[in-house]
Backbone:
């Protein structure tokens, strides 16, 4: 439903146990055992349980009074109830909601706002509700609107009066696969491209490790995001806090947050930390999409650089010869979905006045969808990487085309004292001669090279050919054999990979 408190009409408000911000904040918080019920959050497990549980969509049964319905003479219409419910998608947060409620109950008892007996009843009731949800026995009711109200109402049905006190002062592995793949393809040279045109020869290991570096920065962005989202909104109430002597530091500490959020209005009204998280996911998706695009191209007959195994390929219902790299096509396609999740929330947040607005009910689905989708993209990319073979013979036959050693020849001239712009022109004219003769630079004899500049000597042939060209790279981070070997060794150690088996 809403964040920490939703204003339904003038003079009437409803406060809810745990906000979407709490869900995301808790999902990225460290699990700590300061109180007995601390536990890790597993979205995937919750999702599986949701499939087992069922939602009662019947609108014909007598409607129960809303927990917030004290000042209302009439209930909402079926259409309004259907339009405003969020239980269909936010029930995935049940573990976070229950954990937050347990922390809150413990804090209330510690502060003397409820009795120890009430606290124990609440904790036992919440344990039973969680057991029922896990077992698929819990009935989610749309007339109870959302995950928070479903759990609170069920707790009230179960233990009675103590449940009503609970609401006091509240308002609502791809890197490993790529490094392993790189380790298996030592010494394999492939064409390096710019503008999708042949540029310079590079080691395949160097290319694969480029994606590893990008994924490492992606992980760093998520950790950076956590620094800003790991603050607890619980206790902010509607927007102004509460006059009751609650202890926000206790609940924050129990749930593994860094501290409570300092400003109650900020706590209920902003979703910048969600935007940052979705932005980080979008960048991951873009990197995976680029990997997918490259491998889809390389799997084509036009390139033929790699062959996916049957286990990660699909066929055609009409063309019997087809073997399609569908998983990576979908990785490429689903990146649009991840970016769409970010854009939808950006547009949602752009015009909202302080503090909470019901629009923010729409913040959860983009987060859930982004998390589910990016996890799937990462998993299938790793699976694909483990089931492809690079076609050495096809790659080696393709290497001569494009004069990949041209820049290395220019470097040779620079080392001989020729200004780079002059050497660039000389090599350009040398390539033109090769095109006219349908040959490679290494096929030109010394007299032909000297016709462009007398500085050429016999040692020039140590710079020509893709193998020689790769050997000449020596700068830090380059595609030179020693540099790439050092990069690979670093990543094998960092990811704790067995070089022989590829296992961690």
Residues:
């Amino acid at each position: 439903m809403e964040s920490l408190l939703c204003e339904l009409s003038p003079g009437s408000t409803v406060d809810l146990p745990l906000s979407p911000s709490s869900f995301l904040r808790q999902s990225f918080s460290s699990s700590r055992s300061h109180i007995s019920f601390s536990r890790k959050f597993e979205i995937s497990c919750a999702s599986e349980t949701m499939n087992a549980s069922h939602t009662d969509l019947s609108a014909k049964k007598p409607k129960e009074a809303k927990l917030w319905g004290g000042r209302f003479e009439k209930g909402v219409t079926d259409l309004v109830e259907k339009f405003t419910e969020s239980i269909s998608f936010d029930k995935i947060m049940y573990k976070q909601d229950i954990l937050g409620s347990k922390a809150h109950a413990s804090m209330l008892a510690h502060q003397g706002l409820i009795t120890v007996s009430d606290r124990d009843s609440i904790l036992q009731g919440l344990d039973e509700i969680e057991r029922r949800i896990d077992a698929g026995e819990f009935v989610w009711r749309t007339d109870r609107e959302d995950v928070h109200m479903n759990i609170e109402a069920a707790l009230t049905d179960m233990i009675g009066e103590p449940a009503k006190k609970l609401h006091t002062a509240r308002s609502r592995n791809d890197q490993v696969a790529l490094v392993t793949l790189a380790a298996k393809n030592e010494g394999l040279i492939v064409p390096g491209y710019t503008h999708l045109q042949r540029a310079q020869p590079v080691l395949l290991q160097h290319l694969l490790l480029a994606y590893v570096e990008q994924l490492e920065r992606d992980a760093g962005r998520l950790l950076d995001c956590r620094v800003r989202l790991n603050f607890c909104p619980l206790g902010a109430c509607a927007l102004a806090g509460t006059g009751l002597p609650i202890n926000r530091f206790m609940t924050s500490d129990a749930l593994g947050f860094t501290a409570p959020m300092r400003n109650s209005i900020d706590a209920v009204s902003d979703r910048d930390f969600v935007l940052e998280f979705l932005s980080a996911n979008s960048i991951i998706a873009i990197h995976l999409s680029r990997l997918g695009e490259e491998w889809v191209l390389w799997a084509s007959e036009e390139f033929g650089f790699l062959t996916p195994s049957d286990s990660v390929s699909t066929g055609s219902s009409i063309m019997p010869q087809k073997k399609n790299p569908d998983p990576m096509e979908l990785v490429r396609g689903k990146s649009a979905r991840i970016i769409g999740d970010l854009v939808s929330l950006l547009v949602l947040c752009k015009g909202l006045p302080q503090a909470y607005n019901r629009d923010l009910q729409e913040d959860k689905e983009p987060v859930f969808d982004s998390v589910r989708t990016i996890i799937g993209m990462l998993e299938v990319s790793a699976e694909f990487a483990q089931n492809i073979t690079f076609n050495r013979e096809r790659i080696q036959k393709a290497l001569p085309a494009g004069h990949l050693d041209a820049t290395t020849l220019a470097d040779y001239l620079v080392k001989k004292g020729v200004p780079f712009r002059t050497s660039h022109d000389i090599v350009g004219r040398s390539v033109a001669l090769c095109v006219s003769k349908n040959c490679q630079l290494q096929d030109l004899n010394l007299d032909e090279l000297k016709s462009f500049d007398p500085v050429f000597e016999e040692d020039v042939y140590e710079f020509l050919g893709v193998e020689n060209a790769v050997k000449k790279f020596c700068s830090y981070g380059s595609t030179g054999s020693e540099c790439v070997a050092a990069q690979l060794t670093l990543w094998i150690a960092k990811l704790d990979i067995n070089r022989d088996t590829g296992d961690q």
Observations:
- The domain at 5-165 is CATH 1.10.275.10 (Fumarase C; Chain B, domain 1).
- The two ends are 42 Å apart (CA to CA).
- Confidence is low (pLDDT under 50) at residues 1-52.
- The chain has three domains: 5-165, 174-181+202-230+264-397, 399-494.
